[in-house]
Amino acid sequence: MVMDCHHLCVIFILFRACQGELHCKHEDCGDSTSLYKERYESQTVVEESPYMISPDDFYYKFVAEHRPLVMRRAAKNWPANKVWTQDYLIQSFNEGSQVSVTKGIQNFPFGSKLHLPIKEFFVRSMQEDLMLCDKPTTQMLSDMTAPLCLRCQQFMKKMKVLYWSRQYQSDASTSLFFHPDEQLLTVVNGSAKVTLVSPLYSEKLPFNPEELLTISRLNTDIILKLSSEGIPHLTADLHKGDMLYIPQMWWQHVTLSADYNQFVQFFWPSKMTPNLQSSSKTKDLNQLPSMQASLRSLLRKYEERFLVMGVPPLDCPLQDKRMSDYTFETGKMSPEEYQAIHNGPDFTEDEPCNFDMSNQQSPCHFDTCFEDAEAPICIRYILEYCSRWEDRGCAIELPQLLNKMDKVTMEQITTMKSPYLQAN
């Protein structure tokens, strides 16, 4: 087993969180956790939203409850969708710069890394199973839009971004692994099927004698494997522009089902780590069998305690904009402010006419309308003009003017001689 710094840090976090006192937000923690288990066991697919959701909804309904979520086509308008070609990426990374690459997708993300020039990666990846996973360049960051659901201090303050790329063959899978941070996985190009398992069921998962944080022997038949062993799991089919929220510590298995795949992974540390006392007890990391069992037990306990803890309030100062920060045509304002922005129905020499100025028969050139736009003769002129011409001004002015007319005035308008015919 390879025990690197990442493995040790995760184990330390889990032991620290799960060895202390439990602080529940419910009177009966066990019953509360059972409700979460029942919900996961009754689902088979990840919950979906057809669009990007607000930071409040994302935080309180999903992050605070560790509920995975797919936001469909939330990144469909990123410039990256059009400009991230092979030539563009080689230029962006600089031809000679080194990128981090994992050999064999089944070894991703914790396997040993190669460091290759970006151009060499693209050449070799046509013949070898190579997975690029590295920080995007500043130029690439300008091609992404920060997800609306993450535009809060809790998410963005320690946000990290990774770029994934693979082009070798279709239907290839990662190991089953978990990540200690919250994640938002975004499909820029290609497609994927992601299978998720809650940490609540970690102890039901099989051990891999070679690894601690991954279970590599589960391949593309993972759904059949999990189903046959009665392990609750969720699946999500992702396509170009989709975003998937993967909660902290959740087991995940990714099958890439296209010849060329590009992903962006946002991840950030959880701001809702259980407020528990640390322990001075230590474990012998060389005892692999007991360590694997202990790790899965700790993952379950961590998730149970997370699900029953209190939720800190969300702080989004950049989202909290007042209506006074915007300018509207309606509302009480000074004459100077009104004059600066007004483009309404009044006919005066100082303000523009909403009808077609280039048409000499339009109300813009009917003098009576400048004296009183609500005069019956002006309204009669506008009615006749609009019956003959397709003019944007008719849609803007006419409803407002007619809405002010009473029955007597309308009868007067319909019986008067045509000012339009007389003027033209």
**What does the main sheet amount to?**
9 strands, mixed
Count every helix, treating DSSP H or I runs of 4 or more residues as helices: 16
> How do the strands line up in the largest sheet?
1-2-13-9-15-6-5-3-4
| Percent helix range | 25-40%
Q: Count the strands? A: 15
What is the structural class?
alpha+beta
Shape: elongated
Query: What is the average of the pLDDT values?
Result: 80
Segments where pLDDT lies below 50 for 5+ residues? 1-5, 15-28, 275-283
The rounded distance between the terminal residues' Cα atoms is 93 Å
Quaternary structure state of the chains depicted: single chain
Keywords: Signal
InterPro entries: Cupin_8, JmjC_dom, RmlC-like_jellyroll
Signal peptide: 1-20
Protein name: JmjC domain-containing protein
Give a brief outline of the structure.
This protein has 16 helices and 15 strands. With 424 residues, it is an alpha+beta fold.
